[in-house]
Amino acid sequence: MTKPVRIDQADVPLERWDDPARGNIGFQTLFSGDSTPTDSLVCGIATLRAGDRFALHSHPQAEVYFGLDGTGEVMIDGVAHLLAPGVALFIPAGAVHGVPRASADLRWFYTFACDSFADIAYSFRSQG
Predict the structure, then answer these.
(1) Domains located in the chain, CATH noted
(2) pTM for this prediction
(3) What is the pLDDT of residues 8-43, one digit of tens each?
(4) Contact 46, 107 (CB under 8 A)
(5) Measured between alpha carbons, how far is 46 from 97 in angstroms, rounded to an integer?
(6) SS3 helix, strand, coil % of the chain, rounded to 5?
(7) Which of 110, 100, 104, 125 is nearest to 41 (CA)?
(8) Using CA atoms, how far apart are residues 40 and 57, in angstroms rounded to an integer?
(9) Cβ atoms 63, 110 nearer than 8 A
(10) Distance, CA of 105 to CA of 72 (rounded, Å)
(11) Most Cβ neighbours (<10 Å): which of 38, 88, 101, 107?
(12) Cα separation, 114 vs 59, whole angstroms
């Protein structure tokens, strides 16, 4: 049985994807079975700077975004959805989603129903 675990965001390193296929996104994965003694959920905080993008992609797991700071449009299966502080977006498994361009700094909490970030098989869409 898994026991309670406390993580302080200040103790989690910021990772970044900075490439044409994935976009320019920072993230701190707070809970993931490959780095914490947890299972069943992967959770973290993602950040985009103004002008950055998170490329359109899909994965087999459903996901939830919860807006923390800033506002921006998240595309989900071709439809724009406003993400803002206090707004939650449910992204169905297999849905194509991303942030084409952040007009301002944007920060959100994300979570997946799986054991480890390594279990998430991202499929990025061509930007051509």
Answers:
(1) 16-117 (2.60.120.10)
(2) 0.94
(3) 999 999 999 999 999 999 999 999 999 999 999 999
(4) yes
(5) 14
(6) 5, 45, 50
(7) 110
(8) 22
(9) yes
(10) 8
(11) 38
(12) 12
Residue 67 near residue 108, CB atoms below 8 Å: yes
Task: Return the closest-CA partner of residue 83 out of 106, 67, 68, 102.
Answer: 67
Q: What is the full DSSP assignment across 57-90? A: EE-SS-EEEEEEES-EEEEETTEEEEE-TT-EEE
CA distance 83 to 70: 8
Q: What is the distance between the alpha carbons of residues 78 and 110, in angstroms, rounded to a whole number?
A: 20
- Residue type at position 74: V
Question: Per the structure block, which two tokens stand in for 3?
Answer: 């026991």
The residues pairing with 16 across neighbouring beta strands, listed in sequence order, are 26
Tens of pLDDT, residues 57-94: 999 999 999 999 999 999 999 999 999 999 999 999 99
